[in-house]
Design goal:
heterodimer, A: mainly alpha, MetI-like fold, B: 7-stranded mixed beta sheet, 4-stranded antiparallel beta sheet
């Protein structure tokens, strides 16, 4: 065997590290870095006048300026500081609430299972955007309220997923053995069942990041999410729609949403390949 | 080569169609419904409860007043009344009705209808009821004569009668359907729903259908007693934003677009479309409500003055309407009696900071702002507020903007009140009293009620009350002088601060004729025709 062949096998990427995954990781990583550092290097203030209004993209303003003369590029970069934290908060809350209820339903069974799963069915029977709109309309516009609305939309997905996992795992022999040897129910759940249930949750959560960002932008677009002058992507696209012929106002946030959602989807695919043995 | 028979037949029939169309063009063109793209935003179609810009178009097309605004936009000319007289001190007005005037059902317009209409408008306590304030009695000596007696002199009464809300209603038909003109009309009248589906006036059009947030459809009044309207059917289509309106106009789906802003208009470049930009009496204002529950800092006069000094008025005109607008000194629009020589609003950050420092507010404070998310006269109110947000940031004042639907805004402004907001106004007739009665700090005016939190804070300016009486009792220069002084008082109140009087963009397809802006009625539909 030649030395070159030997070396290439040595540095071969793992099977899940495909180009989309690397790309996804890079995009998401870049947005996270931008989110943390943008106040230190952004060319302009995102809410204050930066130049003439409606300037088309150029050297001074890479993505032009909007109706109030604010730099669209700066606002687009700042947008991630609203979208990512809200997506993270929504996913974490939905996972915690959904998984807790799903695990209880799957493990306890009986009436508790019935009650939780019917609640899940009712919640899932509403179109997500409609339910989110109703909740936000009741609570009032604002990103915080939009986040609460989205948690209400998202938790049932995790409850159902976790319940299915718990039901499958509790039938396994090691769980039966643990129960037979007299382990307490809580020990059985936390030590023998839950550790085997997380893979699909993590994959789903990663994929859902993009979807939450999309829903948050949709709510802002229809005036139920971020309030002016927050540089939130949905809000910016809504401004762009008002000035339809100045395409650049909506182009920046549109591209931002496209890249970040794509990034999370690619990353989610890779994680699934890594964590799900059947997809190998 | 064999001729292609279906193609040939098609060609022949198309040519025949084109020929026949050319023969009947003028008549057929007028029969084709005229489509107007507009954000309807209608609060009611009951003439005495309605109070909106589309209501002006609707009411002035389906009802007729005793008089109407002349082509000069200032004088009044006969409509249902052929002649009128007023006594010397302007407390008694006598009208003679046109002998041949009939309602859309063919029944004659009589003095009892005028009496009933005026009494209902006064007693129903709707938004336009202030127009009938001060009427003591109405006499009907015969079927065609009406005598209106006023408690106090009212030199502006004839102007008021040209307002669309004062159109004469067929009292028999309305009363049959639940309308009431009695002293208890505010509670006894049950006709509002009926008016959503029916009109009962003598105007050139009648209401065909109204579907909220969809369309308002008129058809020609076949019993109209004057020259019939040229267009047989007119539809006002609900189109919320300026861009969609412009697109409908360009694609031929709409014949007239009413709320295209100057920015969007500048992107329309088609020989089929005519764009006219004309000065208007419409204006956008911001206002302070010291009585609103949400105030974090008392909005007393000095604070209001400071905030008014912090507004970049020219910047607002540039940023909201692309420079296509004028500054306005007081809540009485430029060109109305008493407005000549008024001091224009001034941006002065030093004075603003000084006033705030005197109040111990140099470090700033926050104000909650609720604003209707809508575009009026080409101005997006939320965008306007963002501009003011930038302006106020210069004196450390933060405003938290909450955009809401217009109907929600209407509810909130009355209770719990909105500390700071933006709104718009279009005149109902040519005369300054309407502005004093609506914006002035006189007892029970719309803004005195709402800005004071329904009386929680005393905002009444007695000088305005006295001057209004003086203005209504005088005419000519004396009247102008009184309104001038009232305007100065209203500026000093700093409750209502006009920020821009936007030019109006009239955008319509070039084959449409007769599109014009009217000070009382927005768009007089009966004057529109196809060339």
């Amino acid at each position: 065997m030649s030395d070159v062949a030997h070396r290439s096998r040595q540095f071969a990427l793992p099977h899940w590290a495909t180009l989309p995954v690397i790309l996804g990781g890079f995009i998401v990583g870049a947005w996270i870095v931008i989110g943390f550092t943008v106040p230190f290097w952004a060319p302009y203030d995102p809410t204050m006048l930066a130049g003439m209004r409606f300037l088309p993209p150029g050297a001074e303003h890479w993505l032009g300026t909007d109706a109030l003369g604010r730099d669209v590029f700066t606002r687009t970069l700042y947008g991630v500081r609203h979208s990512l934290p809200i997506a993270a908060a929504v996913i974490v809350c939905a996972v915690v609430i959904g998984c807790t209820l799903g695990a209880i339903a799957g493990f306890v069974g009986g009436l508790v299972d019935e009650a939780i799963m019917r609640l899940v069915d009712v919640t899932l029977s509403f179109p997500p955007i409609l339910l989110a709109m109703a909740v936000t309309a009741a609570l009032g516009p604002g990103l915080g309220n939009a986040a609460i609305a989205m948690v209400i939309v998202w938790w049932p997905i995790y409850a159902r997923l976790m319940r299915a996992q718990v039901l499958a795992v509790r039938e396994r022999e090691h769980v039966e053995a643990a129960i037979a040897s007299g382990a307490r129910p809580s020990r059985v759940l936390f030590k023998h069942i839950l550790p085997l249930c997380w893979s699909p949750i993590i994959v789903n959560a990663t994929m859902d990041f993009g979807q939450v960002i999309l829903l948050a932008a949709s709510l802002s677009f229809i005036g139920l999410g971020a309030v002016p002058p927050t540089p939130e992507w949905g809000q910016m696209i809504s401004d762009g729609a008002l000035h339809f012929y100045r395409w650049w106002i909506a182009a920046g946030p549109g591209l931002a949403i496209l890249t970040i959602v794509l990034g999370f989807n690619f990353l989610g695919d890779g994680l699934r390949d890594l964590l799900d043995p059947r997809s190998k | 080569m064999k001729p292609h028979l279906p193609g040939l037949l098609g060609g022949v029939s198309a040519a025949a169609l084109a020929f026949s169309a050319a023969l009947v063009a003028p008549a057929a063109a007028q029969d084709q419904p005229l489509v107007i793209a507009r954000n309807l935003e209608i609060n009611s179609l009951d003439p005495h409860r309605a109070f909106c810009d589309t209501c002006q178009i609707y009411l002035s097309s389906t009802y007729q007043g005793l008089v109407k605004l002349g082509p000069d936009e200032k004088s009044v000319v006969p409509s249902l009344a052929t002649e009128w007289t007023a006594n010397d001190d302007q407390t008694q007005f006598t009208f003679t009705l046109a002998a041949d005037a009939v309602f859309s059902d063919g029944s004659p317009v009589e003095a009892k209808d005028v009496k009933w209409t005026f009494e209902r408008l006064k007693n129903i306590q709707g938004d336009p009821s202030f127009m009938m304030a001060g009427i003591s009695s109405i006499e009907t000596p015969d079927e065609k004569t009406v005598v209106v007696n006023m408690e106090n002199p009212n030199s502006e009464f004839m102007g008021i009668l040209a307002a669309p809300y004062v159109g004469i209603i067929n009292s028999d038909v309305a009363a049959e359907n639940g309308a009431s003109a009695g002293a208890d009309a505010a509670t006894a009248d049950q006709a509002e729903t009926w008016f959503l589906a029916n009109s009962a006036g003598s105007g050139p059009y009648v209401l065909d259908t109204y579907r909220p947030d969809d369309e308002l459809r008129f058809v020609r009044n076949e019993n109209y007693w004057q020259d019939a309207a040229p267009i047989g059917e007119i539809v006002i289509d609900q189109v919320a934003d300026a861009v969609s309106q412009a697109q409908m106009l360009q694609s031929g789906q709409a014949d007239i677009a009413m709320q295209v802003d100057p920015d969007t208009a500048s992107t329309i470049n088609s020989p089929d479309i005519t764009i006219e930009t004309v000065p208007s009496y419409n204006f956008i204002y911001v206002m302070f409500s010291p009585g609103a529950e949400g105030n974090q800092v008392p909005l007393d006069l000095e604070v209001r003055q400071a905030l008014a000094y912090a507004i970049d008025y020219q910047g607002i005109i540039d940023f909201t309407v692309g420079g296509e607008g004028e500054m306005q000194a007081s809540p009485i629009p430029n060109g109305f009696p008493g407005t000549e020589g008024l001091p224009m609003p001034e941006e002065n950050l030093d004075k603003a900071r000084e006033l705030l420092a005197a109040k111990g507010l140099e470090d700033g404070f926050a104000i909650d702002v609720t604003v209707a998310s809508m575009n009026v006269y080409g101005v997006d109110l939320a965008l306007l507020m963002q501009k003011i947000q930038q302006d106020f940031a210069r004196i450390n004042v933060t405003i938290n903007i909450q955009p809401v639907a217009s109907a929600v805004w209407r509810e909130q402004i009355a209770n719990p009140g909105i500390p700071f907001s933006a709104r718009f106004y279009a005149p109902d007739y040519y005369g300054s009293a309407q502005y004093v009665q609506f914006f002035g700090m006189i007892p029970d005016s719309w803004w005195e009620r709402n800005a004071s939190g329904q009386g929680k804070v005393d905002l009444v300016n007695q000088k305005e009350v006295d001057l209004l009486q003086q203005a209504l009792a005088s005419s000519g220069e004396d009247m102008e002088k009184a309104y001038h002084e009232i305007a100065l008082e209203m500026i000093n109140d700093r409750i209502i601060v006009p920020v821009v009087s936007p030019n109006l963009v009239l955008a319509y397809r070039s084959e449409i004729d007769g599109v014009r802006y009217s000070a009382c009625c927005n768009l007089p539909l009966a004057e529109i025709s196809r060339k």
